[in-house]
Amino acid sequence: MFRKILFRFSTYNFINVTQKGKVALIQFNRPKAMNALCDGLIKELNQVTQEIDSNPEYGSIVITGNEKAFAAGADIKEMQDKSFPQVQNIQMLASWENLTNIKKPILAAVNGYALGGGFELAMMCDIIYAGENAKFGLPEATLGTIPGCGGTQRLIRAVGKSKAMEITLTGEFIDAQTALSYGLVSKVLPVANLVEETLKVAEKIASFSKPVAALIKDTINEAENIGLREGVKYERKAFYSTFATQDRKEGMSAFVEKRKPSWTDN
Ligand SMILES: CCCCCCC/C=C/C(=O)SCCNC(=O)CCNC(=O)[C@H](O)C(C)(C)COP(=O)(O)OP(=O)(O)OC[C@H]1O[C@@H](n2cnc3c(N)ncnc32)[C@H](O)[C@@H]1OP(=O)(O)O
């Protein structure tokens, strides 16, 4: 069903990368460590997502783990002996947010645990689908630390202050249905079908014009940084800019001519 991606850097130790049509599927591959996010895994993830982003063959990305764990957080064993100067001087987490610079839409398919950095990483994605067994949490307080990769900031924007405080201050996990009721995830699916169903949505997204998808992603994400008035201005500029593209012309012509559009990504 999948074909291996043959990128320049095609040997990975901590992830598997496969392709279905125009979709790249990235699967974390540290099953013995509940897919804990070690530095090597983040380096590979950054490298491959940048490659996919600049490869015109791909229109979207799906990130997943295994049935037990999406990712149980940053690797605690790797972090445990680090000192304050070490984490600050090397800016330990500086590259951990690179995923947010990817222009193509990213879907997270979360089965099992998405904890700490794993939950933060899922929240950096554009759409989250959860398997029925998914468990989300920010248990950093139980380790004597706090979320370090946008967890507090993205969670409050997704669920509001009281729930964000509750989740982060107690360190307790929430299940898939609760995450759905909080608006954190868009759908809850059977564990066995999660990746397949997520790929279907990713394929649909990838079937449209890539620059237009990138513009939608950018415009919605910008709403998290700016107020409504500025956001509407930002959106309007983006809307106008589609009139400089072939794909806008093609989409509207195809509608009027009652035919399917043929996107050129220009
Ligand atoms: C991209 C953005 C990232 C930014 C990161 C910024 C800062 C983030 C900080 C954090 O994420 S701190 C970590 C937060 N996560 C946790 O506290 C969860 C820790 N894990 C657990 O609580 C449990 O393992 C579990 C997920 C509830 C599963 O429990 P279960 O009893 O089923 O399995 P275990 O025997 O505990 O685990 C199996 C195996 O996996 C190892 N492991 C699990 N989680 C981690 C981890 N986060 N880091 C390193 N290793 C982990 C665990 O030690 C076991 O290994 P062995 O001891 O058997 O070798």
UniProtKB/TrEMBL annotation:
One of its GO terms (biological process) is fatty acid beta-oxidation. Keywords: Fatty acid metabolism, Lipid metabolism, Lyase. CDD domains: crotonase-like. GO terms for cellular component: mitochondrion. One of its GO terms (molecular function) is enoyl-CoA hydratase activity. It is an enzyme of class 4 (lyase). Belongs to the enoyl-CoA hydratase/isomerase family. Transmembrane segments: none annotated. This is Probable enoyl-CoA hydratase, mitochondrial. Its EC number is 4.2.1.17. It comes from the Eukaryota. InterPro entries: ClpP/crotonase-like_dom_sf (IPR029045), Enoyl-CoA_hyd/isom_CS (IPR018376), Enoyl-CoA_hydra/iso (IPR001753), Enoyl-CoA_hydra_C (IPR014748). SUPFAM superfamilies: ClpP/crotonase. The keyword Lipid metabolism applies. It comes from Paramecium tetraurelia. PANTHER family: ENOYL-COA HYDRATASE, MITOCHONDRIAL, ENOYL-COA HYDRATASE-RELATED. The keyword Lipid metabolism applies.
